[in-house]
């Protein structure tokens, strides 16, 4: 049986609920991730901060569908709004779900979750709820390739 811990990525950035949005944006940019895990000071997984949650709060209602005639105005308004949001705490914008997978879960279960729920990234915790890493679709593909190669022998 293949386990999540055999395929997950262990190196990652995280933020705490007390960190500010500015720090979250910088970490997202540097790590090339549009989502970050939120952990408490003991590294227990408590939620997720998505770039979309931040964008929805700084770009007016037309989020995602910027009319080219209003683009300049919308970007300027977003910049102005971000001035007020950047110092606020992550906990105001995070999703408090604790939807994470366990590191000892079977990869077949993860494949089902990722494909049926259209999840591209799942955070991984141990049995005590401590953040251990994440798993994304490229890891799922690696697992599937291993299954193909192991079954063709």
From TrEMBL:
InterPro entries: CBS_dom, CBS_dom_sf, Diverse_CBS-Domain. It comes from the Bacteria. Keywords: CBS domain. Residues 8-68, 94-153 form the CBS domain. CDD domains: CBS_pair_SF. PANTHER family: CBS DOMAIN-CONTAINING PROTEIN, CBS DOMAIN-CONTAINING PROTEIN CBSX3, MITOCHONDRIAL. This is CBS domain protein.
């Amino acid at each position: 049986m293949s386990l999540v811990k055999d395929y997950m990525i262990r190196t990652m950035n995280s933020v705490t609920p007390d960190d500010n949005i500015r720090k979250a944006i910088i970490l997202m940019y540097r790590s090339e991730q549009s989502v970050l895990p939120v952990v408490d000071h003991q590294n227990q997984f408590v939620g997720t901060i998505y770039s979309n949650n931040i964008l929805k709060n700084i770009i007016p209602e037309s989020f995602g569908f910027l009319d080219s005639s209003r683009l300049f105005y919308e970007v300027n308004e977003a910049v102005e709004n971000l001035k007020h949001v950047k110092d606020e705490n992550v906990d105001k914008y995070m999703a408090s779900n604790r939807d994470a997978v366990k590191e000892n879960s079977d990869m077949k279960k993860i494949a089902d979750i990722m494909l049926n729920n259209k999840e591209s990234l799942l955070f991984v915790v141990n049995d005590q709820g401590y953040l251990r890493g994440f798993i994304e679709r490229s890891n799922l593909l690696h697992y599937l390739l291993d299954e193909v190669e192991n079954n063709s022998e």
